[in-house]
Amino acid sequence: ALGNREFRAVQFRRGLPGAGWNRVDQFDLQRNDRWHGVRLGDQQFSISICGGVATLRNSANQLVGRLHRQHRCSPTLGRRPPPGAVTLFDGTSTEHFAKGEATSDGLLMAGALSAAPVSDFFLHVEFRTPYRPVARGQARGNSGVYIQERYEVQILDSFGNQRVFDECGALYKRAPDVNICFPPLAWQTYDIEFSAPRWSTDGTRKIRNAQLTVVHNGVRIHDNVEIPDKTGEGNPEGPEPRPIRFQDHGNPVHFRNIWIVHN
Predict the structure, then answer these.
(1) Higher pLDDT among residues 186 and 57, named by residue
(2) Is 184 helix (H, G, I), strand (E, B) or coil?
(3) Residue 104, Ramachandran bin (φ over 0: left; ψ between -120 and 50: alpha; else beta)
């Protein structure tokens, strides 16, 4: 949704991202007229959307088929913490945050900062981007999980977009392997495994880069990649551990079910 009754759609050949798409063929469809529903298309076919059903017709206006709306759900949504995990936020308290505010219905607001610094860990976090159809680019639900306040896993409403270095799932300047972003207002998951950089005994020389694996909505989008330096506006690298910041970028992004296993 682009606001003012304008829409954009994307066709993925062979299936949706993370569910059959070949990661190659992706085509934009633009709304081409106004009626009681939504109609999009290109030179090959048109799609009319109304009441949760998409009707496909070819260039000769012959019926090709109908698609029913699908509500995708992350397979790790609602994942419970294993023994030994620390529950950072379950909707009842912000006690594990040096800075953090919760909504009246038990959601963590962007801008929270964990009380404890982190080194090596596995983190589960659920997040929701807002519905801002008239916004564009980085104004469309911008936030991020800033590990050690240095390395950002970007959060953004990137539903249907190309995978880009600053879109959802990016390590800010490194694009995800696939854009698996769900629509705004849908709950999404990050499952993050982080290995902190290693430093010389005196702390003056880095001897191994940070390493990161990210699973977004059940799909691995970064596989044990090295992070050579801090990302974006992150704090400079150093041997001392630092906390996790859930970035406040002026957008109403919310979080829930956050837990961590320290390795």
Answers:
(1) 186
(2) coil
(3) alpha
